[in-house]
Design goal:
The protein has a domain of 67 residues. The chain starts with a helix and ends in a 6-residue tail after the last helix. Helices cover 67% and strands 14% of the residues. Helix 4 crosses helix 6 and helix 6 runs antiparallel to helix 12. The longest helix has 67 residues.
């Protein structure tokens, strides 16, 4: 019969396929009233086949598979989120800036050369300086009257007491810390997107489950109405089934609302257009095997997390940068020695010194601060306090990571057992429903028994989907906690 063909043929098609099928069944009932002859039976089956074929073709012609909805896998979602996240873009800019600071610090060890031109007229002598921010700067003794001078100066540090080296190390460590901050945020974002994708996939499958229940209750209601019309069932059975159908439709509406909300959250995390349509390509079963779960004891996983988590590397880099700051502060107690060279050509029109002169100068300068009011000591104390703070931050990071690993690992076993229990519950609920349906069909049970077992089966299936989603999210959390990639 056509009704027997609906489940395998129409299980994955839209609800309108069921409408066409209902028309076919109604036609079957009308045809059935003509008579019970062999020819009438053959004619009824022929019309069943024709109507079923028309229903399939019509449903396929408007199926969502032919819609403009874009396909979205979990790997696509993660990649899009990482590419478009403003927070990651900001951290990437910070990393680039830190790298530029490191190059700037390194450049201070190279020879600095400046070209300086002075043209002036004065009624008195004086000291003039090259333009601000030029390096190295030049001070020139200007004579009275007209004056023009071209100067080239070069300077290179010879010994800074380790200050330049410490400054370079500090900038390099800070750039490493910025890169690790970016990596940590990227891992967290990937995990958040993956979890949101799981939530949306769960909602989608709950909608399908709710729709299947609505379709099933519709079919059952039609069968009961036929029995009522033939006097084989009481009116109360029809009313009870209508109540059950209304409850199924309510659950479907709620599931559809949850699905829209979960998809909106996913779109927000991935920075997608909220008005665009997307079809999720990864089911819960696919997601369950998408990522390899880290293996090992708690101690082994914590040790692995200490190695892989960017937060640990960031804290260590900050500690190293703080130690470099201490070396920088200590360097101010040492002599600062530089070598320099200068070439100069001038035209001193009207000057008592003559019409012009020039020459060169080469030398070494050494400077040592004698009294600074305690500034160097204060700078050293401040740098030492940053070392202590960085050490404490490292311990905090380790404690947090160890806690994350322990908590996430503790959730793996219960999540797996919950899936196993939910699978067993579905098996038992399915058997109970089949038995109740058989008892009701044979007149040995009332409809309430069948309705109760049907509702219990629907709940068991929904609980299984939720348990699978919880298990996948528990796996994602353990992967994130141990610092493994989520792609």
């Amino acid at each position: 019969m056509l009704k027997d063909l609906k489940i395998p043929l129409f299980a994955s098609l839209p609800a309108n396929a069921g409408v066409l099928l209902s028309i076919g069944e109604e036609g079957a009932r009308v045809s059935g009233k003509v008579g019970a002859s062999y020819s009438a039976t053959r004619e009824r089956k022929r019309w069943h086949t024709i109507l079923a074929a028309v229903g399939i073709l019509f449903s396929l012609s408007i199926s969502p598979a032919f819609s403009d909805a874009q396909k979205l896998s979990v790997s696509d979602a993660i990649a899009l989120a990482r590419a478009h996240s403003p927070s990651l873009k900001s951290m990437a800019a910070q990393t680039s800036g830190a790298l530029a600071d490191a190059r700037s610090a390194q450049a201070k060890k190279a020879v600095q050369i400046s070209a300086n031109t002075f043209v002036l007229s004065s009624s008195m002598g004086g000291i003039v300086q090259s333009a601000p921010d030029s390096s190295p700067s030049v001070l020139l003794n200007a004579q009275s009257r007209g004056f023009a001078d071209q100067n080239i100066t070069a300077m290179v540090p010879i010994s800074t007491g380790g200050r330049l080296e410490a400054q370079i190390d500090s900038a390099r460590f800070q750039s490493g810390a910025a890169k690790n901050r970016y990596d940590a945020s990227s891992i967290d974002l990937s995990a958040s997107v993956a979890s949101a994708y799981v939530d949306s996939a769960l909602s989608f499958e709950l909608v399908n489950a709710a729709q299947s229940r609505v379709d099933s209750e519709n079919e059952q209601l039609k069968a009961i109405r036929e029995k009522v019309q033939n006097g084989k069932a009481a009116q109360v059975d029809e009313l009870s089934e209508e109540s059950e159908l209304a409850d199924a439709q309510k659950e479907l509406a709620e599931a559809q609302g949850d699905s829209l909300r979960d998809l909106a959250v996913l779109k927000s995390l991935v920075f997608l257009d909220q008005s665009a349509e997307y079809d999720l390509t990864d089911s819960l079963d696919l997601l369950a095997n998408r990522w390899m779960l880290p293996q090992g004891t708690l101690s082994e996983l914590i040790a692995k997390a200490y190695t892989l988590r960017p937060e640990i590397a960031e804290a260590k880099a900050n500690s190293d940068a703080a130690s470099a700051g201490v070396r920088f502060a200590k360097g101010s107690y040492s002599p600062q020695i530089s070598g320099f060279a200068m070439a100069d050509a001038s035209d001193r029109t009207g000057s008592p010194m003559g019409g012009g002169n020039g020459g060169y100068l080469v030398g070494v300068s050494a400077s040592l601060s004698i009294a600074d009011g305690g500034q160097r000591k204060a700078d050293l104390d401040s740098a030492a306090s940053k070392v202590s703070q960085a050490g404490a931050d490292l311990e905090i990071a380790k404690n947090k990571i160890a806690s994350n690993v322990a908590v996430s690992l503790a959730g793996i076993g219960p999540a797996q057992r919950a899936v196993e229990s939910a699978e067993a519950s579905v098996v038992y609920a399915q058997k109970a429903f089949e038995l109740a349906d058989l008892r009701y069909s044979s007149g040995k049970a009332i409809l309430a028994e069948r309705l109760a077992s049907s509702a219990a089966l629907a709940r068991a299936k929904a609980n299984l989907l939720q348990a699978k989603a919880s298990q996948i999210k528990a796996n994602i959390e353990l992967i994130r906690a141990t610092g493994n990639a989520i792609r």
